C-alpha cells in the first residue's frame, strides 16, 4: 500500500478503450446496454440506453418491524463480545457484532465465561432454499493430466473441501516464551476466535458454508429464473432496476426479511430465456435515510464505465455456456522458495495505454517465466473507479477490473500462467474501501455504518477511504466469501493482503514508530476484531486450498503473524519484509564510506523465528512519482545519456550498475524465505510511475497540477531490458541468472 498516493484524488479517467455501437434481442430487454460477445473487449458497446436516472415516485414496500439496525459508535449496537457472552442482550434484535476492543472488556471478561453466550441467528439458512444455488465449480472443465506432481483439475474439483476445527492456540508460547507475559491478551484473542467459529458452526453450518455467500447474495441463477438478494438494513424500500425493465422502479419491487436482507425472484421468460439478459446494466434503487439512491449491487461480478460517464454501471454477467472460459491446466504446486514478479496489467504495455488481460497473457507471462520467477502477483484486480489509486480504492469487490477486459479474459490469463508453471497471486484489498457513494459500498443503504465503522473510526484520513467493521456478521460473510470467490471462481493461488498494519491497530500504524516492544502489539490499540478476521480468512484459504499462499503486508512486526492459526497465530504464510527497502533507501542517501555491512546484515536477517518473510529491495511503492527507484537513486540523470554500450560509461553508471546487482543478490540471499520484484525494476527501469490525472483543486484555492491525463509514464519499457545494445540488458540478464541460481541451488536463507 502506498500511504500517499491513495490520499490523492482527481477526476475519473475515461477508459482508453474504443467503443462502437451494436444491438441485440431479448424479450424483457428492449434496450440492452452492453453486449459481451467473443469480439475484442473494445468492441463491447453501450446501445440505445434509457436513462437510469429517470425520476420515479417513492416506493411503497411493506417492511418488517424487525429490521436490524447497522451498528457503529454510539448507535446502540452490541459488540461481538457482548453478544457472545451475555445472553440477556437480546441478540436477535441486532445485526452488527462489533468492537471487541472496548478497553473494559479485556480486563472484565474472563475466559471462564466461555460457555455463557448466545449465538447470532443464521442469515442464509433463513433464506428460501427452494431456489437452486449457483454452482461453485466450472461447468464442463476440460480434462488435463497432472504435471510435476500437481493435482489435476478433476481431482481438485472432486476433493472434499473442509476447514479443520480450531486447535488449542497454545504452541505460540513454546515458540516464543516471551509471549507468556501477554498471555491474557493472546488467550482472550484466541478464545474470541474459537467462540466465533463455534457460532458460525451452529448457525451457518460452518465456515465452509459461511464463506459461500456469493451463492445466496447478489444474482444467482437457477433453472427457473434469477434471484437477487442484498443486505441493506437501513433501506426503507428497494427495487431492482436496469435495462431489462427499462429502469422502471415500480416493475420489480423487492421484499425485506427480519435480518435486513432484500430479495426478489424473476422467473424466466415464456420462451425459457433468462429474465435479465447477459450484459445488461443493473442497479438497486433504495429509499434510504439519506434519500433515494441508485447503487451498484454490492456482490456484482462485473462493472463498467460508460463513455462520458464517471460512475460505473453494474453489469449482469452470465454468458452462455459455450462462451464461458473453461480452465484446462491444473494449479502448480507451491514452491519451496517463492520468487514473485509483482505486476500491474494496465501499465504492463510498452505503449502509453491501458494494457489488456489478453496482451499480458501473451506477452508478459512468457517474459516472467523466462526471467526465472515462479509466481506472478497481480495488482489492481478488484474493480476500482479511480485508476490512479493503483487499485487500492476498491469499489466492486467481486468484479475484476473491466479496464483490462472481461472476467473470462482474466481466467484465460490465469490458466496460461498455470500452463507455464507460475503461481498467480492476487493483491487483495480488505483493509479499506473507496469512499465513493454512487458506485462503491460507502453509504450503500444510506447509513454511515453499514459495512464500515461510523464516525472517525470508519474513515482513514490519509487514504481518504472507509474502514470495515470486522465485528459485523454480514461484513465477515462478505469479506470471507470475497476471498474464497477469487480462489474458487478464478483459480488464483493465493493473496498478498494489502494494508494489514492498518487493519490490526486502531491507530492504523499512522504516526507510530514500532520499536519491537510487545506492549505495542498486545494492548488497547490492537483491533482484535480485525485480527480475528485475519485468522478466519487464513482458515478459509488454507483449509479449502491447502496449496494456496497468503502474504500479509505488515510493517509493525506483529509477533505470531506467520504462525498457524491452530497454534495461536494469525495464520499468514509470509510477511512482507518491508524494513529492507527502507534500509536501502536510508543507505543510498549516505556516503559509501558510511555504509556498515554489519548493519545491513542485521536488517536483512532480523526476522522472527519460524515466521517466514518475503524479501525485496524495492516494490511498486518506490517506483511511484514522488519517490525514486534504486536505479534512480544510484544513477540519476546519467541513465538517460550513458546506458548505450557504444559510448563510455560514467563512474556513476559503473558504480550504480554494480550496486544495483549486489543489492538484489544480498537481499535475495539473506532477506527472507521468498523474494519479490516489481516489473521492470529488474533492469533498472528509468521512468517513474505517474498515472494519468488532471489538475487537483484543493480547498483554499491550491491546485496540484496533473499530467494532462497522459499515459506516457504509466507503462513499462520492457524494450529497454531486451535491447542488447543497452546496459539495461546486462542488468536484466544478471537478475535472470540470479533467479535461476536460486531455483537450482536454493541460495536464500
From TrEMBL:
Pfam families: Alpha-amylase, CBM_48
Family, similarity comment: Belongs to the glycosyl hydrolase 13 family. GlgB subfamily.
A GO term from the CC aspect: cytoplasm
GO molecular function, one term: 1,4-alpha-glucan branching enzyme activity
Residue ranges annotated for the Glycosyl hydrolase family 13 catalytic domain, each copy included: 355-715
EC number from the UniProt entry: 2.4.1.18
Key words of the record: Transferase
Catalyses which reaction(s): Transfers a segment of a (1->4)-alpha-D-glucan chain to a primary hydroxy group in a similar glucan chain
Keyword rRNA-binding: no
Stretches the record annotates as Disordered: 109-170
Keyword ATP-binding among record annotations: no
SMART domains named in the record: Aamy
Name the UniProt record assigns to this protein: 1,4-alpha-glucan branching enzyme
GO terms, biological process: starch metabolic process
Organism whose genome encodes this protein: Carya illinoinensis
Pathway where it operates: Glycan biosynthesis
Transmembrane segments annotated in the record for this chain: none
Amino acid at each position: 500500500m502506498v500511504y500517499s498516493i491513495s490520499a490523492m484524488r482527481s477526476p475519473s479517467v475515461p477508459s482508453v478503450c474504443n467503443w462502437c455501437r451494436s444491438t441485440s434481442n431479448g424479450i424483457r430487454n428492449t434496450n440492452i446496454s452492453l453486449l459481451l460477445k467473443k469480439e475484442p473487449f473494445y468492441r463491447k458497446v453501450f446501445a440505445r440506453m434509457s436513462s437510469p436516472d429517470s425520476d420515479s415516485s417513492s416506493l411503497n414496500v411493506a417492511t418488517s418491524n424487525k429490521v436490524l439496525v447497522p451498528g457503529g459508535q454510539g448507535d446502540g449496537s452490541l459488540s461481538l463480545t457482548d453478544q457472545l457472552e451475555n445472553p440477556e442482550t437480546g441478540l436477535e434484535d441486532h445485526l452488527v457484532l462489533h468492537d471487541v476492543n472496548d478497553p473494559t472488556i479485556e480486563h472484565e471478561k474472563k475466559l471462564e465465561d466461555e460457555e455463557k453466550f448466545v449465538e447470532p441467528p443464521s442469515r442464509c439458512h433463513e433464506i428460501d432454499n427452494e431456489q437452486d444455488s449457483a454452482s461453485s465449480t466450472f461447468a464442463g472443465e476440460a480434462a488435463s493430466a497432472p504435471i510435476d506432481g500437481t493435482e489435476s483439475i478433476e481431482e481438485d474439483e472432486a476433493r472434499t473441501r473442509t476447514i479443520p476445527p480450531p486447535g488449542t492456540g497454545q504452541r505460540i508460547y513454546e515458540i516464543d516464551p516471551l509471549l507468556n507475559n501477554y498471555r491474557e491478551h493472546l488467550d482472550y484473542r484466541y478464545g474470541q476466535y474459537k467462540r466465533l467459529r463455534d457460532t458460525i458452526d451452529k448457525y451457518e453450518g460452518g465456515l465452509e458454508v459461511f464463506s459461500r455467500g456469493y451463492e445466496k447474495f447478489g444474482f444467482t441463477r437457477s433453472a427457473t429464473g434469477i434471484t437477487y438478494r442484498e443486505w441493506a438494513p437501513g433501506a426503507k424500500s428497494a427495487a431492482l432496476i436496469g435495462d431489462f425493465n427499462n429502469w422502471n422502479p415500480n416493475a420489480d419491487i423487492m421484499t425485506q426479511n427480519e435480518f435486513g436482507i432484500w430479495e426478489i425472484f424473476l422467473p424466466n421468460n415464456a420462451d425459457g430465456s433468462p429474465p435479465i439478459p447477459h450484459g445488461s446494466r443493473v442497479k438497486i434503487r433504495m429509499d434510504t435515510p439519506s434519500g433515494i439512491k441508485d447503487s451498484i449491487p454490492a456482490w456484482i461480478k462485473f462493472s463498467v464505465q460508460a463513455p462520458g460517464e464517471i460512475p460505473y454501471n453494474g453489469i449482469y454477467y452470465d454468458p452462455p455456456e459455450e462462451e464461458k472460459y473453461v480452465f484446462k491446466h491444473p494449479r502448480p504446486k507451491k514452491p519451496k522458495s517463492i520468487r514473485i514478479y509483482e505486476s500491474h496489467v494496465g501499465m504492463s504495455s510498452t505503449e502509453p495505454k491501458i494494457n489488456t488481460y489478453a496482451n499480458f497473457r501473451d506477452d508478459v507471462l512468457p517474459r516472467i517465466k523466462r526471467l526465472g520467477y515462479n509466481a506472478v502477483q497481480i495488482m489492481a484486480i478488484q474493480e476500482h473507479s479511480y485508476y490512479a489509486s493503483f487499485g487500492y480504492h476498491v469499489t466492486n469487490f467481486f468484479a475484476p477490473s473491466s479496464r483490462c477486459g472481461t472476467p473470462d479474459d482474466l481466467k484465460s490469463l490465469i490458466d496460461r500462467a498455470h500452463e507455464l508453471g507460475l503461481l498467480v497471486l492476487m493483491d487483495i484489498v480488505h483493509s479499506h474501501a473507496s469512499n465513493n457513494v454512487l458506485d462503491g459500498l460507502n453509504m450503500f443503504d444510506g447509513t454511515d455504518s453499514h459495512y464500515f465503522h461510523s464516525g472517525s473510526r470508519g474513515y482513514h484520513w490519509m487514504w481518504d477511504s472507509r474502514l470495515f467493521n470486522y465485528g459485523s456478521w454480514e461484513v465477515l460473510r462478505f469479506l470471507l466469501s470475497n476471498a474464497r470467490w477469487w480462489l474458487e471462481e478464478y483459480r488464483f493461488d493465493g493473496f498478498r493482503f494489502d494494508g494489514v498494519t492498518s487493519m490490526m491497530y486502531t491507530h492504523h500504524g499512522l504516526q507510530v514508530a514500532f520499536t519491537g516492544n510487545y506492549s505495542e502489539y498486545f494492548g488497547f490499540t490492537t483491533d482484535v476484531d480485525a485480527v480475528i478476521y485475519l485468522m478466519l480468512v487464513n482458515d478459509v484459504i488454507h483449509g479449502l486450498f491447502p496449496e494456496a499462499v497468503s502474504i500479509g503486508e505488515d510493517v509493525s512486526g506483529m509477533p505470531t503473524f506467520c504462525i498457524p492459526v491452530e497454534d495461536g497465530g494469525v495464520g499468514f504464510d509470509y510477511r512482507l519484509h518491508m524494513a529492507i527497502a527502507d534500509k536501502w533507501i536510508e543507505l543510498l542517501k549516505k556516503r559509501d564510506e558510511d555504509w556498515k555491512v554489519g548493519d545491513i546484515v542485521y536488517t536483512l536477517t532480523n526476522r522472527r523465528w519460524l515466521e517466514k518473510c518475503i524479501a525485496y529491495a524495492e516494490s511498486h511503492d518506490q517506483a511511484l512519482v514522488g519517490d525514486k527507484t534504486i536505479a534512480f537513486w544510484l544513477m540519476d540523470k546519467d541513465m538517460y545519456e550513458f546506458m548505450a554500450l557504444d559510448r563510455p560509461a560514467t563512474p556513476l553508471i559503473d558504480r550504480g550498475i554494480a550496486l544495483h546487482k549486489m543489492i538484489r543478490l544480498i537481499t535475495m540471499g539473506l532477506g527472507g524465505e521468498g523474494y519479490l520484484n516489481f516489473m521492470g525494476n529488474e533492469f533498472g527501469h528509468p521512468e517513474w510511475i505517474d498515472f494519468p490525472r488532471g489538475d487537483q483543486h484543493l480547498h483554499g484555492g491550491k491546485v496540484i497540477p496533473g499530467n494532462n491525463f497522459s499515459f506516457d509514464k504509466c507503462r513499462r519499457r520492457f524494450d529497454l531490458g531486451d535491447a542488447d545494445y543497452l546496459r539495461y540488458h546486462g542488468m536484466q540478464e544478471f537478475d535472470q541468472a540470479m533467479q535461476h541460481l536460486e531455483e537450482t541451488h536454493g541460495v536464500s536463507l
